[in-house]
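FIELD: query
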Amino acid sequence: MSQEINSLLDIIVEKNASDLHLHVDKPPTMRVNNQLVEMGKKPLTPEDTVSYMKAIASAEQQAEVEKVGGTDFGYALLCFRRQSKIPGQYLPAKGQY
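FIELD: result
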């Protein structure tokens, strides 16, 4: 599932979206120019949303979800073009703010 969340994150970076919304019974949705745009037609299942959350949330955030039923967090996705022997490769960096 982490590959799938990475694909969604790649799309929001490509489209210059500001947010990714993941809700049960709705397809993944991104915010582009303050407009919500669905990313496909297939609605997410509860299992999908839990898997996506676990792929990007810290252990502490996951524990909070288990304890209180939810959490609020941001996920930063930074890509730096690599100037080395393998052109076109990217080095992902993630940070929690």
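FIELD: remark
Residues 80-97 have pLDDT under 50 and may be disordered.
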